[in-house]
DNA sequence: AGACTAATAT
DNA sequence: TATATTAGTC
């Protein structure tokens, strides 16, 4: 990092948030896409190589490490400049980063939030659009569940580790219920011939549209 | 109280 | 069918 200061310099005079958003969107274009990034969970130096050069092997980074690093990044961004419009900008940056993690569904959510942020009494109970579990979101979910092990994988923990803005415990609970049914079905069906109706989760095909998602804004952490 | 989960609703 | 909401339990 070290980019935060520059971000601050973009906005010396205050309220022009739209200008910021545009400029941020502009430099985001140059960033690598999520798929180009080396996963943080991957070791940079292969163990054999480290051994050969007697480099102390780097500790395997876990989901928790990555999650913690992510949290630290947020608080660092927030603390830069000690307040004022810079804070708002920083959290905006994080928000868009997080939206890109979750892709479309979260974008829809935040769009809707700003849309009816008025005084409409029904806005007091801002109804979230129903969450769509994109392959990206689902993969994150599956990774976290696998990491936790099925016994520790409860909605709150999963939600926290997934670290997706706007994702609720209820969202996860609902998905988990379905996922458990799927696992159960797999259990009984292991080594049985594929009934050809198993398109549930099995290798979600790969919509091309999801690969080049417009802005090309990169997620900092992806796997 | 709050979280979990199975059942039920949309 | 996918996701949300409810209701019962711990």
Automatic annotation (TrEMBL):
Residues 125-184 form the HTH myb-type domain. NCBIfam families: myb_SHAQKYF. PROSITE patterns: HTH_MYB. Pfam families: Myb_DNA-binding. PANTHER family: HOMEODOMAIN-LIKE SUPERFAMILY PROTEIN-RELATED, TRANSCRIPTION FACTOR BOA-RELATED. The lineage of its organism: Eukaryota, Viridiplantae, Streptophyta, Embryophyta, Tracheophyta. Its main location: nucleus. InterPro entries: Homeodomain-like_sf, LUX/BOA-like, Myb_dom, Myb_dom_plants, SANT/Myb. Residues 190-212 have a biased composition (Polar residues). Keywords: Nucleus, Transcription, Transcription regulation. Gene3D superfamilies: Homeodomain-like. The keyword Transcription applies. Residues 190-215 are annotated as: Disordered. It is found in: Nucleus. One of its GO terms (molecular function) is DNA binding. Signal peptide: none annotated. It comes from Hevea brasiliensis (Para rubber tree). One of its GO terms (cellular component) is nucleus. This is HTH myb-type domain-containing protein.
């Amino acid at each position: 990092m070290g980019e935060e200061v520059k971000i601050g310099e973009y906005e010396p005079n205050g309220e022009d948030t739209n200008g910021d958003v545009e400029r941020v969107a502009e430099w985001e274009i140059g960033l690598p896409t999520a798929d180009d990034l080396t996963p943080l969970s991957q070791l940079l130096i292969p163990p054999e190589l480290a051994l050969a050069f007697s480099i102390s092997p780097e500790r395997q980074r876990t989901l928790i490490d990555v999650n913690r690093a992510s949290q630290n990044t947020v608080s660092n961004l927030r603390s830069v400049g000690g307040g004022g419009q810079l804070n708002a900008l920083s959290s905006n940056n994080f928000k868009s980063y997080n939206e890109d993690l979750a892709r479309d569904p979260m974008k829809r959510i935040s769009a809707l939030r700003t849309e009816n942020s008025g005084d409409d009494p029904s806005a007091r109970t801002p109804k979230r659009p129903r969450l769509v579990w994109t392959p990206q979101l689902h993969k994150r979910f599956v990774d976290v569940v696998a990491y936790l092990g099925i016994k520790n994988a409860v909605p709150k923990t999963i939600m926290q580790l997934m670290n997706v803005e706007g994702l609720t415990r209820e969202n996860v609970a609902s998905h988990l219920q379905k996922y458990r049914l799927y696992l159960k079905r797999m259990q009984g069906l292991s080594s049985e011939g594929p009934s050809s109706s198993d398109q549930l989760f099995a290798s979600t095909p790969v919509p091309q549209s999801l690969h080049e998602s417009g802005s090309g804004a990169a997620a900092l952490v992806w796997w």
